[in-house]
Amino acid sequence: MFNKVSHIGIAVKDLQSSMDLFSRLFGKKPDHTEELPDQKVKTAMFTVGPSSIELTQATDPSSPVSRFLEKRGEGVHHVSFVVDDIERELARLKGAGFELIDERPRIGADGTLVAFLHPQSTNGVLIEISQKQ
Ligand code: ZN
Q: Domain 2-131: what homologous superfamily?
């Protein structure tokens, strides 16, 4: 079952300057920063009430975030939803005809299990589902 929006992911070119910008916007520092070598990104998470904003910068030109920035520029990159049981949701979504980028969950920021759906099957919106371990 989909629960709340976990976070909105924003693709940025320069994480440090975007962290400064969003720190001014929210009036606080990020709650968590992390580099994810397998996804070739570094991230900063700001908790905002019941949800979060995740800033993501690519650390390598082959990162999907680099390709996104080239095509679309900086801006909203994905919407992430908390699910109870990510394996069950992936099976349900596949059965319902959605195209999965990740057939199996992988480790995302802060040790959560995450999987992405292809935006071609979701009206152009990259959707992430995540389950806390
Ligand atoms: Zn995310």
A: 2,3-Dihydroxybiphenyl 1,2-Dioxygenase, domain 1 (3.10.180.10)
**38 has which bridge partners?**
none
Å from CA of 131 to ligand 1 middle: 11
Local confidence band at 31 (pLDDT 50, 70, 90 cut-offs): very high
- Pull the structure tokens for residue 84: 């109870």
Cβ < 5 A residues, ion ligand 1: 9, 54, 80, 128
Could you tell me if 102 and 94 are in contact, meaning their C-beta atoms sit under 8 angstroms apart?
no
Residue ranges per structural domain of the chain:
2-131
Give pLDDT tens digits for 52-105. Answer: 999 999 999 999 999 999 999 999 999 999 999 999 999 999 999 999 999 999
Q: How far is the CA of 79 from the centre of ligand 1 (A)?
A: 7
- What span, in angstroms and rounded, lies between the C-alpha atoms of 56 and 9? 7
Please give the model's pTM, rounded to 2 decimal places: 0.92
